[in-house]
TrEMBL record:
Transmembrane parts of this sequence: none
Chain positions recorded as ATP binding sites: F95, G96, S97, D108, I109, D110, D162, K224, Y233, G242, V243
Keywords: ATP-binding, Magnesium, Metal-binding, mRNA processing, Nucleotide-binding, Nucleus, Transferase
Keyword Nucleotide-binding: yes
Protein name: Poly(A) polymerase
Protein's organism: Astatotilapia calliptera
Binding site for Mg(2+) 1: D108, D110
Poly(A) polymerase central domain span: 215-359
Location in the cell: Nucleus
Binding note for cofactor: Binds 2 magnesium ions. Also active with manganese.
InterPro entries referenced in this protein's UniProt entry, alphabetically: NT_sf (IPR043519), PolA_pol_cen_dom (IPR007012), PolA_pol_NTPase (IPR048840), PolyA_polymerase (IPR014492)
Function noted in UniProt: Polymerase that creates the 3'-poly(A) tail of mRNA's.
Pfam entry (one): PAP_NTPase
Record-level Gene Ontology MF annotations: ATP binding; metal ion binding; poly(A) RNA polymerase activity; RNA binding
Length: 412
């Protein structure tokens, strides 16, 4: 942005990220850089960095090539004019942690396949599914059409891939397609396509809305590691998933634009230990479009007013990424954030190390009562947080982890 003066000159104003100006624009001091190096060294010891990026990039390109070939085959089968077949295009857009640059070892790669509007969605889950299944590199392939966001899951040379599909309301998919343009979803009739588009749109918006992508990535890796170690990284269990944590970290980056990664982590716990919920976390004021699509808005939707921990996506139609948070899991999340803040204070005072932040939850110490069924390999535990009274009941096995709480019937 710029500000014109009466003498004809122009002052270039610094860019403001997010809905408000920065809390601090202080440049890092030597101690901040030292702490960041210590944080990086600690995270490396947890083996959070992916070593097969070259293979993964090659797999994504191979998938896109297969997808483009399939689109041309479908055009020929449908007797589409030759000129349309030649220009049908087709693109695959990775999103999620892979696109954010925080992909961890063994994590899935999420990818959006975009095809022309004259196709039927069903063909993707039948015809393209069969083409994928015929590839010798593909194992454990499954089509889940009934999911909220329909997906094909597969393993390609040991790399787990989740493919979603969306139809673009035009005859071809150009290489320079800009999915952030809201007009992309204007004429999309199928809500499943809108939800599929938004996986990429949200991820790309997050990257565009942080002042320093490299520092954002390091800080987000740290928060993801912490959340996984503390067993609070899961939408399905009523906690927060990857998108929620990414939006929260991005908001801290916006208000501390010049901070190092270690400072961002420290400020993350400080800010959110004081946050007054249910004031929502937003990265930007999303443009109000009249496309008749459902979106999160407490003024319009009465049920949205009851969300405990709203964390709002930065792309139209905006959604709350933390709908599944219940009173019990909300209390546990707050307890863990306060614990993180206390440890970060000690790290600043050089009384603690970063490894203490990432200490895993001691299941049998944390939960008051534990009933173990040895033959079935099932643990049932109750948890009462220090911050509030709701009781949560946890079921764990060697393969899964489930939650039953006093205010949500059952979450798998």
């Amino acid at each position: 942005p710029s500000f014109p003066l009466s003498n004809g000159s122009v002052i270039n104003m610094p860019r403001t990220y997010g809905l408000t100006g920065p809390i601090s624009e202080d440049l890092p001091e030597e101690e901040n850089l030292i702490q960041t190096r210590k944080l990086l060294d600690t995270m490396k010891s947890y083996n959070v960095y992916e070593n097969n990026l070259e293979l993964e990039n090659r797999v994504v390109k191979r998938l896109e090539s297969l997808f483009r070939d399939w689109l041309k085959e479908m055009c020929i089968e449908m007797n589409v004019p030759k000129v349309v077949t030649e220009k049908v295009g087709g693109k695959i857009f990775p999103f999620g942690s892979y696109h954010l640059g925080v992909h961890s070892k063994g994590a899935d790669i999420d990818a959006l396949c975009v095809g022309p509007g004259f196709l039927e969605r069903k063909a993707f889950f039948t015809s393209f599914f069969a083409k994928l299944k015929a590839q010798k590199e593909v194992k454990d392939i499954q089509a889940i059409e009934e999911a909220y966001v329909p997906v094909i899951t597969l393993s390609w040379e040991g790399i787990q891939i989740d493919l979603v599909f969306a139809l673009l309301p035009q005859r071809s998919v150009p290489d320079n397609l800009d999915l952030l343009n809201n007009s992309i979803v204007k004429n999309v009739v199928d809500a499943r396509c809108v939800r599929s588009f938004n996986g990429y749109r949200v991820t790309e918006e997050i990257l565009r809305l942080v002042p320093n992508v490299l520092n954002f990535r390091v800080a987000l890796r740290a928060i993801k590691l912490w959340a996984k170690q503390r067993n609070i990284y899961s939408n399905k269990l009523g906690f927060l998933g990857g998108v929620s944590w990414a939006i929260m970290v991005a908001r801290i980056c916006q208000v501390y634009p010049n901070a190092t990664a270690s400072t961002l982590v420290i400020k993350f716990f400080k800010i959110f230990s004081m946050w007054v919920w249910p004031i929502p976390i937003r990265l930007i004021e999303v443009e109000k479009c009249t496309y008749n699509l459902p979106f999160w808005d407490t003024k319009v939707n009465r049920c949205d007013r009851y969300h405990l921990m709203p964390i709002i996506t930065p792309a139209y139609p905006q959604q709350n990424t933390s709908v599944s948070v219940s009173r019990s899991t909300f209390a546990i999340l707050n307890e863990e954030i306060h614990r993180g803040h206390a440890i970060c204070l000690e790290i600043e005072q050089k009384k603690a190390k970063w490894s203490e932040l990432f200490e895993p939850t001691d299941f049998f110490k944390k939960y008051q009562y534990v009933l173990r069924h040895v033959k079935m390999k099932i643990d049932i535990a109750t948890h009462r947080t220090q911050l509030s009274s709701p009781i949560s009941l946890y079921f764990t096995t060697h393969r899964c982890f489930a939650l039953v709480s006093s205010d949500c019937s059952f979450v798998l």
